[in-house]
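Changelog entry: the Class I SAM-dependent methyltransferase record was regenerated in this release. Current contents:
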Amino acid sequence: MTSVDLDSSRDFDITIEKTLAGLGLEEIVSIHRETNSYNWFLKKAIEAQTKDERCEPCYDFIFVDGSKNWTIDGLAFFLADKLLREGGWILFDDYGWRYADALAKGKAAGDGVSIRDLSDDQIDEPNVAAIFNLLVAQHPEYGNFKVQDQSWAWAQKVRGQREIKHERKSTLKSRLRRLKPTPRRAP
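Regenerated structure tokens:
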């Protein structure tokens, strides 16, 4: 497995290294650090996978949990697509997140993007939802789309189902209700 994170996140209380060590998984994950974007890692991965002027896909699953920005993550999708194998899945986090919500909490920047530098409509619109709906869901090589609780957006690299399913998180209580046997009436 491969994980890409920013150099600056080394200073966080919880890091990918500490999390993996705590789970005993540090041996199976290769961690790559970049100065300002996972897109530079993706660029280098495409270069490494290019043979005879063609990129050979190498991943079965790609999880994009990053800037939540149209420009950065829109490019990330097209770069990741080159590295994702047929049948593989891509998952975007923060489908419904908006810069407006960050502003309301007093933040001036979101994952390295200055909110002041964005247009009002980009601040108001969930950028990841726009990426998913306008780039991923319209891409002819993707199908089996699912959006979970306005948070996670899934797509599989296959020609297939074009409908986007929206699901809400089911609670543990509702899951248990489904497992509870229905009482039988006496004959």
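The chain has a mean pLDDT of 89.
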